[in-house]
């Protein structure tokens, strides 16, 4: 029953029936609280669209959710930023993501996923030295931050892999191979440990 392709269209109909601006004044606090709840729901539904690979719908909803939080003068939860940049990354649209990434890092400076996306953005713009710094900063943050929901590997094997891509584009074939080997080793070790826990 948790199939995102089934839930996402139903969820979209629900969101369309509860516009954020239609919240009436029940008490001085209620409209803002209700707007935040609707915004959070839109973020959850955006995630379902993302899982169903309906990236355009997911992107629209996550932006609406973020706007809803900002209208209540609350920063959007870090997971909203992760979802937004995951969508752009998977869609291959990182080129226009810079202002949002910079703002998100100001709000959540120790969120490894944001620094990873910063590195991808810089690499796509040919700013390889800056991209290398961003990926190296991912190692400093690491994969053990529990303050934010992070994808495993952003502070390790994904960052090593993209460092390899930077080195490749900079014409440093040997360094590229070293980073690729390191990424593969960490990745294999992580999944071997995960299998041991499951077994």
Task: Name its key features.
disordered C terminus; mainly alpha; 199 residues
Kindly state the mean pLDDT as a whole number?
75
Q: In terms of structural class, how would the helical and strand content be classed? A: mainly alpha
Q: Return Rg in Å.
A: 19 Å
- How much helicity do the residues have? over 70%
Order of helices and strands: HHHHHHHHH
Main beta sheet: none
State the end-to-end distance: 27 Å
Number of helices: 9
Quaternary assembly = single chain
- DSSP summary, beta strand count: 0
Shape: elongated
Can you characterise this structure?
By secondary structure, the chain is mainly α. 72% of the residues lie in helices and 0% in strands. It starts with a helix and ends with a helix. Mean pLDDT is 75; it is low at 1-39 and 194-199.
Architecture blueprint of SSEs:
Layout: H1 4-17, H2 30-51, H3 55-71, H4 78-91, H5 98-107, H6 112-124, H7 128-141, H8 157-169, H9 173-198
In short, what is this structure?
The protein has nine helices and no strands. With 199 residues, the chain is mainly alpha-helical.
